[in-house]
Write a structure and sequence with these properties.
- Two copies of one chain form a homodimer.
- The first copy, chain A, has 137 residues and is an alpha+beta fold.
- In chain A, 37% of the residues lie in helices and 26% in strands.
- Chain A contains four helices and four strands, in the order αβαββααβ.
- In chain A, strands 2-3-1-4 form a four-stranded antiparallel β-sheet.
- At the A-B interface, α1, β1, β2, β3 and α3 of A face α1, β1, β2, β3 and α3 of B.
- β2 of chain A pairs antiparallel with β4 (126-136) of chain B, so a sheet runs across the interface.
Amino acid sequence: MGRITSLLMIIGFILLGCLRVSEQPLQSDDLGAQPGQIIHHVFFWLNNPDSESDKQQLIEGLNTFSSIDEIKVLVVGSPASTIEREVVDNSFDVSELMIFESVEAQDAYQVHPIHTEFVENYSHLWERVVVYDMVVN
Amino acid sequence: MGRITSLLMIIGFILLGCLRVSEQPLQSDDLGAQPGQIIHHVFFWLNNPDSESDKQQLIEGLNTFSSIDEIKVLVVGSPASTIEREVVDNSFDVSELMIFESVEAQDAYQVHPIHTEFVENYSHLWERVVVYDMVVN
């Protein structure tokens, strides 16, 4: 077998390795939720829950956070139409989920100018907000 | 430049490409939380919140879910020691976060034998449970 054939085979194996990486199923590591990281989950109840415009304004405001360095992951959403069960609270209107590297990073985000400006400009939209901060085991 | 040198350079570029993939910062796509996916977040309040043994038992139970195909991502945690604020509810004892591909996948998980067995074997541990199902925008 010639040198070039051998090298082509090596390239083939490397390419197969790259494919395997991209085909692996999602693990919690891919979530950016490794032990010690903080999942910050916020639920908003709007003053005018029937106003699609208010809902879109709030979502627009939440998306301004995407330039905050401390936020590793930012996801915005609304209640899912899963089976209704007594324990499921689907009464909220908008929700955001963020992942931070540490407690300190979350605390820094709270006083970040983009966040304080968001509260100033958008808090008139909501009636109630509930936050859960979870540290990943 | 000889053929072998050229091939070695090609291998180098491929390896660099592989490195780039693994060095990319986490995006919300890596969260497995793409539009339409379901984030299922559950908070447990224990009957005996001071019992470390009860807490560990519940966590052990939640980890049995790792073999359920419908669950794309499974994360277990506890309240984080972020700054205390009126809107933050850090009174829960244990929390689990899961990501599902669709509403149907979450509904299927509810009746999965591993899940129903979990409820049967571990529900005596908790006093209260609250669930939020969020669809990603």
